[in-house]
Design brief:
This protein has two helices and eight strands; from the N terminus they run αββββαββββ. It has helices spanning about 1-15, 85-100; strands spanning about 20, 35-45, 50-55, 60-80, 105-115, 115-120, 125-140, 150-155.
Length: about 160
Amino acid sequence: MECLIKPVLRALQDAGLAAVEAMPCSPMPRLKGAACAVRLLSAEGGAYQYLGIVQTPDQGAQALYGRQLHARIQIRIFSPTDTGGAGCSAAAEQVCCLLTGGIAGLSVTGFTVDACAYDAKSDCFACPVTADVSAYVYATPSADGTGFTDFTLKGTIV
């Protein structure tokens, strides 16, 4: 489900925020400014459904399959202690504006923001933002027909 996290990382980075995929056991680096750690909390989707045939210049006619995914993504915002809770809150507000404006490839259906608070484990102020998103993922079957390849995130069709 990495295809659901990449658009969030890209959007955060394009907005000028440092953003990385959250790692379960990595040490917290010394921060100079706010940073976001993004992780997938849950994802669910139905079976791939046959959508039709697409013509590609290099491979000719190929079957296309797709499915809708619903996911919950956590964006944990960290801010160094020298900026105080205000630095963390400012970054959280920036993330909320980004989510409200939308993320390319994803439909943000809602989000919640917890309070910014000091986190002793990271020695930073932290604020978790949880977003509910949905998207369509398209895939083409492998040459031998036993699996899918070329997964493409297409966003939600309205």
